[in-house]
Amino acid sequence: MKRLILVRHGKSSWGNNLPDEKRPLKKRAYNDAEVVLKTFKEFQSGNLTLWSSHAVRANTTANLFKDEMEIPDDRFTVKKELYTFDESQLLSVIKTCPDNVEKLMVFGHNPAMTGLVNRLGDKPIDNLPTTGLCVIDFDLNSWKDIKTGKTLLQLFPKNLR
């Protein structure tokens, strides 16, 4: 059994005329992470491995989750190749996950995240909002084989306020 948790980065700032990869989170993103984490922590059990895009907004969001859920450093990896907006490329990266990892949480970017939620899960959505989270289970032993799974949970900040 494999569990994939897809999380879109928090709301980012367009101020300061920074390159896309360097845009920081807005204050709202911290509040959104807090409400999503509160509900997710009630659902989540067992060891999680976290992978994040290197973009500031994704990495900061991932670190908020890492700290709140007390994920050890050796289960947290920043992957430059997760800085993608293409769902097929995102899926290719996920398929490289070692099979000894049962639960993988990935922090990335739209439209790749929404596309992958719809491609892999059985509950389609129009858009995975910023700090939105989706849990999909696969009845498989290898990440290389993931195709379609069962959507267990969708958490959107606006629905939790």
Gist?
The protein has 161 residues and is of the alpha/beta class. The protein has helices spanning 27-43, 56-68, 87-94, 112-120, 157-160; strands spanning 2-8, 49-52, 76-78, 103-108, 133-138, 150-155.
State the main characteristics.
single chain, alpha/beta, 5 helices, 20% strand, 161 residues, 6-stranded mixed β-sheet
Overall description:
The chain has 161 residues and is of the alpha/beta class. Helices cover 32% and strands 20% of the residues. It is built from five helices and six strands. Strands 3-2-4-1-5-6 form a six-stranded mixed β-sheet, sandwiched between helices. Helix 2 (56-68) links the parallel strand 2 and strand 3. Helix 3 packs across helix 4 (112-120). The chain is globular. The N and C termini lie far apart (32 Å). The mean pLDDT is 96.
Order of helices and strands: EHEHEHEHEEH
- Percent strand equals 15-25%
Class of secondary structure makeup: alpha/beta
The end-to-end span amounts to 32 Å
**Rounded mean pLDDT score:** 96
Number of strands: 6
Q: What's the gyration radius in Å?
A: 14 Å
What is the count of helical runs? 5
Shape: globular
User: Strand order across the biggest sheet?
Assistant: 3-2-4-1-5-6
Uncertain segments are none
Q: Biggest sheet, open or closed, and with what strands and sense?
A: 6 strands, mixed
Helix proportion of residues, in percent? 25-40%
Element layout with pairings:
Layout: E1 2-8, H1 27-43, E2 49-52, H2 56-68, E3 76-78, H3 87-94, E4 103-108, H4 112-120, E5 133-138, E6 150-155, H5 157-160
Parallel strand pairs: 1-4, 2-3, 2-4
Antiparallel strand pairs: 1-5, 5-6
